[in-house]
């Protein structure tokens, strides 16, 4: 029997179920990947490994419940456009990168991170054609919901001709073709290896990977190549559902040839767009939406089409991860969950009607939210939804109604950093700025409890643990900014998955 004894650690109390909330040191014994005992001065099993805790703090391993792992891996090699304040600045960044040369094997200059909702004018194809008439240029928005391409890129990728950006379903199809270009796979996987190493150094033991395509195949390769051995739940989109249905794989089933680390996750459905692309489906028009083709955004799926997908998922034993950002989309999502009895979560739920919160509480549906989005979206929220800001990122309202909350990043939209997500949930703004709508903030305990996949340091739990140099909760009475600053500064010294040390010591 493989075992690991972690000696002399203090359990971070998440809900009063810790063995000793006072912080008295205990030993934690993990055998065959499962915590079997938590008590003072446990004997070390013969032949077992031992890790000296030295009074450090222990927490269940952290999870990010919404990641696009290949896209997150690619961010390192893409032109950073997140600081562009208008179209001209973005084009200038493209001009400079082209002057430097050093394009990837694909020959395509790819950028990431622009957010044009607050720009004085919309991006145009002509802007990029002027500086890159011969080199394909693909600029991916910071929310991932549109691409800004020049004419050469449109021709190369078979994209529909547009004067400006290509959004939503048309864009997702183009993005898939971008991933099939020469060298794209190797470039992505090299980035993934670095991204996973960074994740385990932050105490991440598991992610829900909602990448397009066939992520289970990529994870088999990663396990075979001995990348950091964290856990993954892999999603499937409607386009790939037939393959999963034919294989009879249900949510929670282990993906073969992954050493038990990778399991089937949810059916991912994108029911509306995003705030920054101004395609999120709302009950009322955007305040600045007069010039939009759809002033209130629009659904990607009809109500009956969505119900059919959820009913199929339920029959197949699949949970559902249903992307819904606008309040009309959230209402549609709740109706579909209610009619079908499907289980899972609503992803993002950025704008919610108060009356829908009471509908939600009666359903077996999580709120899978990304608090760090509000750091990027506050300005555009106040521009597009100025009369609705009190109904955005309603984390406290979810918890107060008994709705389960789990935190994630939506990386690459926000960094894969659970400490950043928790801090943003506690202090809804920059560390040196105001706590925006503090009535919707979480406490540090609540934020961490929403980051550990429902687990606690106790017998019967998976042997996925994180050792911290500092108490992440700090002393009572701190301000929200002080609490968030402490969370951001927490130092992870060891990460353990299934009783195996995968980072630190």
How would you explain this protein's 3D organization?
There is one protein chain. With 505 residues, the protein is an alpha/beta fold. Among the domains are: 1-61 and 456-505, Urease, subunit C, domain 1 (Roll); 69-178, Diaminopimelate Epimerase, Chain A, domain 1. Helix content is 31%, strand content 21%. It has helices at 69-74, 87-100, 125-131, 151-157, 168-178, 184-201, 215-224, 241-247, 303-316, 327-340, 354-360, 373-384, 395-400, 418-426, 444-449, 480-489; strands spanning 3-11, 26-31, 34-39, 49-52, 57-60, 62-67, 79-80, 109-114, 137-141, 146-149, 166-167, 204-209, 231-236, 262-270, 320-324, 344-348, 365-369, 405-407, 465-468, 492-497, 500-504. The strands form three sheets. Strands 1, 2, 3, 4, 5, 19, 20 and 21 form an eight-stranded mixed beta sheet that branches. Strands 6-12-13-14-15-16-17-18 form an eight-stranded parallel beta sheet. Strands 7-8-9-10-11 form a five-stranded mixed beta sheet, with helices on both faces. Its EC number is 3.5.-.-. It is an enzyme of class 3 (hydrolase). This is Amidohydrolase. GO terms for molecular function: hydrolase activity.
The main sheet comes to: 8 strands, mixed
CATH class division of the domain at 1-61 and 456-505:
Mainly Beta
Question: How much helix, percentage-wise, in residues?
Answer: 25-40%
Query: How many β-strand runs?
Result: 21
Low-confidence stretches: none
State the distance separating the first and last CA atoms: 21 Å
What is the name of the CATH architecture of the domain at 1-61 and 456-505?
Answer: Roll
Structural class: alpha/beta
Question: How large, in whole angstroms, is the Cα Rg?
Answer: 23 Å
CATH superfamily caption of the domain at 1-61 and 456-505: Urease, subunit C, domain 1
Number of DSSP helical runs: 16
Mean pLDDT: 95
In the CATH scheme, what's the topology name of the domain at 1-61 and 456-505?
A: Urease, subunit C, domain 1
What form results from the Cα inertia axes? globular
